[in-house]
Specification:
The protein has about 425 residues and is α+β, with helices and mostly antiparallel strands. The chain is about 35% helix and about 20% strand. It is elongated and about 85 Å long. The structure holds flavin-adenine dinucleotide. The site of flavin-adenine dinucleotide has 40 residues, from helix 1, helix 2 and helix 14.
C-alpha cells in the first residue's frame, strides 16, 4: 500500500510527486512512456517556457480558460515559487519578452532533470512504461490502480495528472478523462486551443501568401454582427492551409467558439496590418508616399510600407491596375486600399484537429474541485492537477505555470491527507 499514487509524469505529476514526497511519504509515480516530461521537453521550442513573471492579474488574463480558479492555488504556490524551486536547485532562469521565463541554458532537459532529481532525492518510486488502464475507489476508502498488464497497486490517495489529449505521441491521450468519469466526475466539452486556423479562401488555396510573416499585426475573430469578438496584436504567418503564428494561435479557440455561436462553419476573421495607426494617419502616410513618387507605379511608390507580397496582394484586392501610376490613383482607390490594410476580412472554416493543438480546452469540471487543495469534492483522497482540468491558457508559460502550481498544491495536500488517515 502506497500513501500516494500519481498517474502521469508531466510537469503537474512531477511537481505533485516532489511536493507529496517532501516529508518522506511513500509515493509511486506511474508514467505511460519511457522517459518523463516528454511534452515539457518540446515546450517553448525545446527551451521550456517554465513560467511567466507578469503580475497575477496579467497571468490570469492570459489563461482565458478559467484562469480565475488559480487565484486560490497561487496563494500557496505561485510563479515566483516556481522560479525559486528551480533556481534553488541550480537552474538559473532568465526573463524574455512578455514575462516569459526560460532556463539560461535554453535546455528544457535541465528543467526535467531537476524535477526528476528531486524525486530521486525524496525516494519517489518511478515506474516508466506503465500505462494505467483503470482506477477504482475501494470499500476500504483507498484506491486500486490497474495497469494494462494487469499489475495492481493500492494507495490512500490518488493524483490524476495525465494531461490533455493534444500531441498524443507525448503520452497525453486523454486517459485521465476516463478515470475521472469512472470516479463520478464531469468532463466539460473538449476542444483544440493554441492551434493553427484553416481557410479555403482562394488566396490560401493558391498558396500566394504561403510562408509570409506579418509582424505585430492585429488579428481578430469577428462575430455574426461584424464586431470583433477578440483581437490579438502579435506576429502571424500565412501557411498552405490557413494562418498560424502567435496571434492566430491565440485566436484559434475563438474560431471554434464563434463557429458554435453562429452555427456555421465559415466565419470571418480580420487582419489590421497597421494597428498602431488610425485610419486617417495611415491615409496620410500612403498619400505622402504616392505624392513623393507620382510617376512610379503605385506598387513601387508604396515600396517599403509593408512586406512586398502583402502590398501586392492588397493592391490586387483593391483592383488597382498593375500599370497605374501614383498620380492617376483615385481617392476611392486610396480609401479602398487604406480600408483593406486596416481590416482585411476573410473566411476561415476551422482549426487543425485537437491532436495538433498545443493545448486541450475543457477537462474535469472545476465545480467539482476544491481550489485550495485540488482535492475532488466527490471522492475524498482523489486529487487532480494540470491540463486534465478545465483550465487552458495561451502559450507563454501559462499552461506550464498552471500545471506546476496545481501539481504542487495537489501533492502537498495528498501528502497531508494520506498521513492524517494513517
Ligand atoms: C509543442 C508544444 C509546445 C508547448 N509550449 C508551451 C508553452 O510555450 N507554454 C505553455 O504554457 N505551455 C506550452 N505547452 C503546453 C504544456 O506543455 C502543457 O500544458 C503541459 O505539459 C501540461 O502538463 P501536464 O502535466 O498536465 O500534462 P502532460 O505534460 O501532458 O503530461 C501528462 C503525462 O501523463 C502521462 N499519462 C497519460 N495517460 C497515462 C496513463 N494512462 N498511465 C500513465 N501515464 C499516463 C503522459 O504520458 C504524460 O507524460 C506546449 C505544448 C506543446 C505540445
Amino acid at each position: 500500500m502506497y500513501q500516494i499514487i500519481i498517474i502521469g509524469g508531466g510537469p503537474s505529476g512531477l511537481m505533485a510527486a516532489a511536493a507529496a514526497s517532501a516529508d518522506g511519504e511513500r509515493v509511486l509515480l506511474l508514467e505511460k512512456k519511457k522517459g518523463l516530461g516528454r511534452k515539457l521537453k518540446i515546450s517553448g521550442g525545446g527551451r521550456c517556457n517554465v513560467t511567466n513573471r507578469l503580475p497575477y492579474d496579467e497571468i490570469i488574463k492570459n489563461i482565458p480558460g478559467n484562469g480565475k480558479f488559480l487565484y486560490s492555488p497561487f496563494s500557496i504556490f505561485d510563479n515566483e515559487s516556481i522560479i525559486a524551486f528551480f533556481e534553488s536547485r541550480g537552474v538559473k532562469l532568465k526573463e524574455e519578452d512578455h514575462g516569459r521565463m526560460f532556463p539560461v541554458s535554453n535546455k528544457a532537459q535541465d528543467v526535467v532533470d531537476t524535477l526528476v532529481t528531486t524525486l530521486h532525492q525524496n525516494k519517489v518510486e518511478v515506474k516508466e512504461e506503465s500505462t494505467v488502464e483503470k482506477v477504482e475507489y475501494t470499500s476500504t476508502d483507498s484506491f486500486k490502480v490497474t495497469l494494462n498488464n494487469q499489475k495492481e497497486y493500492q494507495s490512500k490517495s490518488l493524483i490524476i495528472a495525465t494531461g490533455g489529449t493534444s500531441v498524443p505521441q507525448t503520452g497525453s491521450t486523454g486517459d485521465g478523462y476516463k478515470f475521472a468519469t469512472s470516479l463520478g466526475h464531469t468532463i466539460t466539452e473538449l476542444f483544440p486551443t493554441e492551434v493553427p486556423i484553416t481557410s479555403a479562401e482562394p488566396f490560401i488555396k493558391d498558396k500566394r501568401l504561403k510562408g509570409l510573416s506579418l509582424k505585430d499585426v492585429g488579428v481578430s475573430v469577428l462575430k455574426k454582427n461584424g464586431k470583433k469578438r477578440i483581437t490579438h496584436q502579435m506576429d502571424m504567418i500565412f501557411t498552405h492551409f490557413g494562418i498560424s503564428g502567435p496571434a492566430a494561435l491565440r485566436c484559434s479557440q475563438f474560431v471554434y467558439k464563434e463557429q458554435k455561436n453562429q452555427k456555421k462553419q465559415d466565419i470571418d476573421m480580420q487582419i489590421d496590418a497597421f494597428p498602431q495607426l488610425t485610419t486617417d494617419a495611415l491615409e496620410q502616410e500612403i498619400r505622402g508616399l504616392l505624392n513623393a513618387a507620382p510617376d512610379k507605379y503605385v506598387k513601387n511608390s508604396l515600396h517599403g510600407l509593408i512586406e512586398e507580397r502583402y502590398l501586392q496582394f492588397m493592391i490586387d484586392c483593391a483592383e488597382i491596375d498593375e500599370d497605374l501610376t501614383a498620380h492617376h490613383i483615385s481617392n476611392t482607390q486610396i480609401n479602398t486600399l487604406v480600408a483593406l490594410f486596416k481590416g482585411f476580412t476573410f473566411k476561415v472554416n476551422g482549426t487543425l484537429p485537437i491532436d495538433k493543438a498545443f493545448v486541450t480546452g475543457g477537462g474535469v469540471s472545476l465545480k467539482e474541485i476544491q481550489p485550495k487543495t485540488m482535492m475532488s469534492k466527490l471522492v475524498p483522497g482523489l486529487f487532480l492537477c494540470g491540463e486534465v482540468l478545465d483550465i487552458h491558457g495561451y502559450t507563454g508559460g501559462y499552461n506550464i505555470t498552471s500545471a506546476l502550481v496545481t501539481g504542487h498544491v495537489a501533492g502537498l495536500n495528498a501528502g497531508s491527507f494520506s498521513t492524517t488517515i494513517d
